Amino acid sequence: MATTIEEPISQAIPPISVRYCAVCSFPLEYCEFGSSFTKCKETLHEEDEDLYNKYYSEEALQKKLGSISLEAQSKLEKDTAAKEAKAEKKADAALKKKMASQVTIKRIERNKRKFVTSIHGLEAFGVDLKKVAKQFATKFATGASVTKNPQGLDEIVVQGDVSADIVEMIEDGVGLLKGVPKENIVEVEEKKKKGGD
Amino acid sequence: MFKKFSAATDVSGQTNVKSSVQRSIRSALLSQWKVDQDTLESIWPKKESVILVKCREHISIYTLHGEPLFFQHFDEPFFPTLRLVHKYPFLLPKVRIDRGAIRFLLAGAHMMCPGLTSAGGYLPPPENEIKAGTPVVLFAEGKEHAVALGVTKMSTEDMRRINKNTAVETVTYLGDDLWALQKL
Ligand SMILES: [Zn+2]
């Protein structure tokens, strides 16, 4: 067996490499059906004039019409414009909501001189809670976990009083906390009820 | 199949696949797809294992280095992902929809016969008839690359003859939630 067997030459058919749109992720020819057509076009125009002409020159636009009627084409264009407007509105609303959402950092007294810190609201800024809990655990050498609060919402609970440090981390945009606006931080203190001991 | 699909809520777990199972998947792909050994080898090298990502409603997605390569519903035939079809457009038989049908397809609609039998559409000639229940790639009039994958609900000759009702049920399409999942 081990004598003169040569590696057979692979007859594999090479893959086609498709250029995807940097904006909408579709193959460039499908941008017109997406919800960001104007931006797709602008971006391609800046990046690659030749490709832009391939898809959007007068000639290309004529050819594209194919078998559908002018009426159907104008319906499509209206449809695309409406889609874009809708997507923009949605993005606007999402951004507004995001910028208005609060991050609550709560210092909770558990026992005399024993605290835990709970952080709620980071997920609104696209922060992966599990990962950031791990980041806290490593940084403060303490326990940190993601749990559901009584309202059923996820929050991070860190053992010990680290509220000031976490505020600082958000202000400095450390690691995963980048992009969380410090104006949205609300600090709360939850004292143990007096006489509860 | 992948409308309203989210990795956070619809994936139940990832597991390694036993090598005996990998072998049987490999031979299933060779018999179900129009692909030769060498090309399959470059898509999925023998010395590398795919990971099974189990999802809701008995959907299994198989990934290589985190990238979805193909998927399966129950023990139905394997579908390549649309991105894989863009690289290897010949894996499954092809049909084409006319330009007018594209926007409906991209909204997740199933494809009706007229969208395939009209001037802008394409069905294979009678001698290459595709039977009902066959996975197909959907191309689109005036476009170079595939737009979706689906299953025929009737034979291509019946599509011509009957020319109404659903011709191809859409399984995954450009811009659906599987498309959005570049890595798992
Ligand atoms: Zn685009």
Description:
Chain B: Belongs to the TMA20 family. Chain B: One of its GO terms (biological process) is formation of translation preinitiation complex. Chain B: Its main location: cytoplasm. The complex is a heterodimer of chains A (197) and B (184). A 5-stranded mixed sheet of chain A has the order 3-4-2-1-5, with helices on one face. Chain A has 197 residues and is an alpha+beta fold. Chain A folds into 2 domains: 28-93, no CATH class; 101-190, SUI1-like domain (Translation Initiation Factor Eif1), CATH 3.30.780.10. The mean pLDDT of chain A is 84. In chain A, strand 1 and strand 2 form a beta hairpin. Chain A contains 6 helices and 5 strands. Chain B is an alpha+beta fold and 184 residues long. Chain B has 2 domains: 7-87, Roll (Sulfate adenylyltransferase), CATH 3.10.400; 94-173, Roll (Sulfate adenylyltransferase). Helix content of chain B is 29%, strand content 28%. Residues 21, 23-24, 26, 31, 34, 40 of chain A line the site of zinc ion (ZN).
Provide a quick synopsis of the model:
Chain A is α+β, with helices and mostly antiparallel strands. Helix content of chain A is 40%, strand content 17%. Chain A has a five-stranded mixed β-sheet, with helices on one face.
Radius of gyration of chain A: 27 Å
Separation of the first and last Cα atoms of chain B: 17 Å
Strand content of chain A: 15-25%
Listing every helix as H and every strand as E from the N terminus to the C terminus, the arrangement of chain B reads HEHHEEEEHEHEHEEHEH
Strand order of the largest sheet of chain B: 1-2-3-4-5
Mean pLDDT of chain B: 94
Query: What topology, given as strand order, has the largest sheet of chain A?
Result: 3-4-2-1-5
> Which fold name corresponds to the CATH topology of the largest domain in chain A?
Translation Initiation Factor Eif1
How many distinct beta strands of chain B? 10
How would you name the oligomeric state of the polypeptide chains in this document? heterodimer
Helical content band of chain A: 40-55%
Q: What ligand molecules are bound, each kind once?
A: zinc ion
The gross shape of chain A turns out to be elongated
Q: What is the succession of H and E elements of chain A?
A: HHHHEEHEEHE
Provide a count of the helices of chain B. Answer: 8
* CATH architecture verdict of the largest domain in chain A: 2-Layer Sandwich
Largest interface: A-B, 26 and 29 residues
Helix % of chain B is 25-40%
Number of strands of chain A: 5
